[in-house]
Write a structure and sequence with these properties.
- It contains ten helices and seven strands.
- With 453 residues, it is an alpha+beta fold.
- The protein starts with 29 loop residues before the first helix and ends with a helix.
């Protein structure tokens, strides 16, 4: 038998390389980034200006010089020009060979060609020296201004970001308990002031929303506590009555059930209100005429009991949205028009299509509503006076009917218009958004199938 060979052990993986200490990291502050941006733009523009200046100066400097002479006096004159040119461009002449500008060794006068070569060398040397000196001095000036631009850029970036620091400090200071505070930006009417004003408007909306939420919770707690207290009182009185009979106990139980039904209606209304304020997840085609027909059928008995005359003019009105919420909207409007009416009053309900937009109108007679109190009717648990509470809590009067209408209309993106009538009563119109062509045909087909004869 052979001995079992040892299995090879896996080699451990090498440790990961340590992170580089020289990894580039972007600046963490906006002020530093703006400073670097300002400096970069300055250097880029200054470099472009230097290049343009260099080429403009190079074009202005002469590239070649031609010397014209005549007669013997010209040589003397040429001799003076060569000496002056060589002196002006001595450094260039040294680089290009000054032997051509030196007088001949035998003492003879230089020829015109030799003098022209010497003058051209001197001109080229002067041109090169001028351009080199321009580059050197411009580079030094550019370096000095680059250092100065860092400080200037840092100061300007801080000045530009000062309003943002004000907004940031205010946002940290303001909380849910101090939403009444405002930034109140001052200064020129620019983008930063517009940002501050927008933030103030946002704080105003949040403040109003929080106050409305707290008021809604308080009102809902009060409305829920009332039937519970009534129910508990009825049961306690019935239990403490030692001479209670079956009839009295039955009456107490019926009243307790009525209080429980009121709680159920209130909770259902609150759920509908919350669903309407949440918005819609999907839009389905429906027709407002069919929705209004169902709402009229639901309130027909109450209208007859109150001797209220209902007139309907229901035309095709295709719309998109949630049909169940639309039914609740129409039912609340019809119920409100009948409940808060006068004996022998009238209610008019109409649907139709105006400029491609479906609308639903409900108007009724009734007590006179002050125009300045109209907005309160569409707030949760808001009643103008005890006269608008219907026939008591057992009949409804929760103060949520028109608030639910407003929430459902907002969820559908519809326009809600309400007008008080001089003779008394209210006229409400809900105009839905225009529907696409395909969706409109689907809604019309659906309306044709659902519309009554």
């Amino acid at each position: 038998m052979t001995a079992a060979q040892p299995q090879p052990q896996p080699r451990p993986l090498p440790p990961p390389p340590p992170p580089s200490r020289f990894r580039f990291r972007a600046p963490r502050t906006v002020r530093l980034r703006l400073t670097l941006l300002y400096v970069g733009l300055f250097l880029a523009s200054a470099a472009c200006l230097l290049v343009i200046t260099y080429f403009l100066v190079a074009r202005q400097l002469p590239g070649t010089v031609t010397l014209r002479t005549s007669g013997g006096g010209t040589a003397g004159t040429s001799s003076q020009v060569v000496t002056g040119g060589t002196g002006a461009g001595a450094s260039a002449g040294t680089g290009t060979g000054t032997g051509a500008c030196a007088p001949p060794a035998d003492g003879t006068l230089p020829t015109v060609a030799q003098m022209n070569d010497c003058v051209q060398q001197a001109a080229a040397g002067l041109r090169n020296d001028t351009l080199d000196q321009l580059l050197i001095e411009s580079g030094i000036a550019l370096g000095i201004m680059a250092v100065a631009s860092v400080g200037l850029g840092w100061l300007m970036a801080g000045r530009v970001l000062s309003p943002l620091r004000t907004i940031t400090a205010a946002a940290r200071r303001i909380s849910a308990r101090s939403l009444h505070q405002r930034i109140a930006m001052s200064g020129p009417d620019d983008e930063l002031k517009e940002l501050g004003d927008t933030f103030d408007q946002l704080l105003g909306r949040l403040d109003a929303s929080f106050r409305a939420q707290r008021q809604f919770v308080a009102n809902a707690s009060h409305e829920l506590r009332t039937p519970l207290a009534r129910q508990r009182t009825l049961l306690e009185v019935a239990l403490r009555d030692k001479q209670a009979t079956n009839a009295s106990l039955r009456t107490a139980c019926e009243r307790a059930l009525a209080a429980g039904e009121q709680q159920e209606r209130l909770i259902a209304a609150l759920l509908t209100l919350a669903r309407g304020e949440r918005g819609l997840d999907a839009f389905e085609p429906f027709d407002l005429s069919a929705v209004a027909t169902g709402a009229l059928a639901a309130v027909r008995d109450e209208a007859e009991a109150r001797a209220v005359t209902v007139t309907a003019d229901l035309g095709a009105a295709p719309a998109l949205g949630d049909p169940r919420l639309a039914e609740q909207l129409a039912a609340n409007l019809a119920d409100n028009a009948i409940r808060y009416n006068v004996a022998g009053g009238q209610v008019e309900i109409g649907t139709g299509n105006r400029d491609g937009r479906a609308f639903l109108t409900v108007s009724n007679t009734g007590p006179v509503i002050p125009p300045d109190q109209l907005g309160r009717l569409f707030q949760p648990f808001q009643r103008l006076d005890p006269g608008r509470s219907g026939s008591g809590p057992e009949r409804g009067g929760l103060g949520l009917g028109l608030a639910i209408v407003s929430a459902i209309a907002a969820a559908h993106g519809a326009e809600l218009r309400a007008v008080t009538r001089a003779a008394g009563g209210l006229a409400v119109e809900v105009v839905f958004p225009a529907t696409p062509a395909g969706a409109g045909r689907r809604a019309e087909d659906l309306a044709g199938a659902a519309a009554p004869a």
